[in-house]
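re: that chain from earlier
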Amino acid sequence: MNKFKFYFFLFCSVSILFSCNKSDSVDEVPVRDFDVQYQDDMDMIEDYLNTHYITLENQEIKMSKIDNGQTKMMDLLSVPDGSFPQLRKKTVEYNDKTYQIYYIKYQADNTNPNAVKPSRVDGVLAAYRGTYLNYTTKKVNDVSVTTLNATLFEYTPFPSDFLTLDNAVRGWREIFPFFKEGNKTVVDGEPTSYADFGLGVVFIPSGFAYFNVGRTSSLSGVTIPSYSPLVFTFKLYEVKAADQDSDGVISNIEDLNHDGLFTNDDTDGDGVQNLYDSDDDGDGYYTFYEIHKNTDGTIIFEDDDNDGIPNYLDPDRPEQN
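^ sequence. v structure.
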């Protein structure tokens, strides 16, 4: 059982993953061809996977350079389903092309039936450690030696805030939905406790992170250079259903075609996705007033004209004509 305790007031996470103000950005560099940079990034990530191994020490994932025949992370790609840790690749469609993101699932999902996986737009309470990959070359006895480095830029062991995935680097919202939250225990006077949380690693090509724009961490002051592949180890403690437009309908429900994307759900065709649209059907009535909630918080979707379309998505229900 994975179990971890912490005090929420010990650490405040204001992550560069989610903030884009001027203090977090460094100058842009000329834009490279996406496909060329993607291949360079994947070559570097695969070099890292082939030269490093993974361990778990005191509930912390560690990745170290192979020095004594340890199993390289790339070999975890052949681990069968149901065995862990396992390396997998997520296929991502972008600009009508197909790309991939590597990730490691260190253990099986939480078996608690009430534990959920986040959607791409939900809030997550996650501890994480972020590094960026790069090569450096130096002369050793007049011979050029190139070294692959993983440089720490941010470490958040005691998260205090839920971070919404739709505001995160794309690599996070592509991979976190594969992981379940942990079991939460709250006892007065004691630190909050989580057990059996999602535990993993994601390897993000720069195109699904910051690409040609560098970022400086407001926590550590370390700058991530442009075109840097990123590696995050993480613990997914808890998931919070988000309501981006505060219309009373949680955003996960506003994925009407259930494809998990949220980018192709625009009921009134006004160019604003439903999860950001406070009037989903464009009838001039706010969605908030076209739904009702029970005392337990569950939503009642009424259908006044019995046409199979709930009021908040129906622009021509009788009482509005």
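The helical segments are 34-51, 170-175.
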